[in-house]
């Protein structure tokens, strides 16, 4: 079973994402900020990461930079999932190595479409 | 809704659009027509049917449009568009090298996601730069054609099937909405059209997308449409159908495109059939949906 790390400081969003992604046959790991997400990646790299932008301690953008510099850190498919819905943020995320971008609010169809787009489904 | 009202609505939908509702689609009719009835000041389906029986043409058109407009999204099913980029367009670039022109018909184009997906694919093929590429988008509903022309989509709509790189490359953000750039919109011509009516005036095409519309028609109607589509497709052209649609067992006008599921080529080996595929005797001059 493939793994997806869900990184969001909102427990509600993590719960919603978990329900959707488990329905898509992913095993879910959760982290509430970028630092904890990075620790999880050092233990074991997931296949996919659903990543919020604004979080305490280490935000999603900084986490992504750190992840992509890690050995093997270019492998996980990273899908941003954020309320930062403007073109400038999207372009910045893509430049930093994000594979896809979900603008909140989202639903199951959108998550499915985006995960299909990057070859995770 | 009474069984009599449902039968009446089934009959006019069949006559006007070819939509072939099975006997268990009352929920669909109610979900689409109760909001319409209330919007025009009627209490529900019963009163709506009475008005239709009295013969109000604009209301009949609204009912048909409400029932035949269906959800669509960018790069729907993904695979047909991969085929387009990997096989169909490269082959047409070679075959039309002297003409440097392509004609593509997107039948039942709804709110534009499909013809614009095709346009974005075309735009990404460097070898087609400077070619005259005409994409004709047709639909039964004038309302959806107007939305398509505007090329403005909600955040939800642009996230269903549209890769994020395409969004950044081809759209402008307008508040919470997204509008396709004028160069992509300008590649698509919009026309109201009923697939049940004669469409020979559209001319011939190199590629026809007729996806997720024939599933609503009965067998005879499908056979007739396949026959008439085959007359508009160039002998080396390509027909794309929806994932749940096929010509197999219905028509020998087309044969499957090798290794490309959902795509078909004209079957040039078969004998032409006199009288097949005639248009249905309808009053409406518009229609087609997905």
- What percent of residues of chain A are in strands? 15-25%
Q: Which strand order do you get reading across the main beta sheet of chain B?
A: 6-2-1-7-8-10-9
- The first-level CATH class of chain A is given as Alpha Beta
Distance between the termini of chain B: 25 Å
Please tell me the overall pLDDT of chain A.
96
The portion of residues forming beta strands of chain B comes to 15-25%
Indicate the low-confidence ranges of chain B by residue numbers: 281-290
String of helices and strands of chain A: EHEHEHEHEH
Written overview of the protein:
The complex is a heterodimer of chains A (121) and B (290). Chain A is α/β, with parallel strands linked by helices and 121 residues long. In chain A, strands 2-1-3-4-5 form a five-stranded parallel beta sheet, sandwiched between helices. Chain A has a single domain, classed as Response regulator (Rossmann fold, 3-Layer(aba) Sandwich), CATH 3.40.50. Chain A contains five helices and five strands. In chain A, helix 2 packs parallel to helix 3 (60-69). Chain B has eleven helices and ten strands. In chain B, helix 1 packs across helix 4, helix 2 (26-39) crosses helix 4 (57-68) and helix 5 (79-95) crosses helix 6 (113-123). Chain B starts with a helix and ends in a 24-residue tail after the last strand. The A-B interface holds A 85-87, 90-91, 94, 100-103, 106-107, 109-110, 113-114, 116-117 and B 73, 78, 155-156, 159-161, 163-165, 167-168, 173, 176.
Task: Summarize the helices and strands and which ones pair or pack.
The complex is a heterodimer of chains A (121) and B (290).
Chain A (H helix, E strand, L loop, with lengths): L1 E6 L3 H13 L2 E6 L2 H10 L4 E4 L8 H10 L7 E6 L4 H9 L4 E4 L4 H10 L4
Parallel strand pairs in A: 1-2, 1-3, 3-4, 4-5
Helix pairs in contact in A: 2-3
Chain B lengths: L2 H15 L8 H14 L5 H9 L3 H12 L10 H17 L5 E7 L5 H11 L8 E8 L2 H9 L1 E3 H4 L5 H7 E4 L2 E4 L1 H4 L2 E5 L12 E6 L8 H14 E9 L12 E3 L6 E4 L24
Parallel strand pairs in B: 1-2, 1-7, 2-6, 7-8
Antiparallel strand pairs in B: 3-5, 4-5, 8-10, 9-10
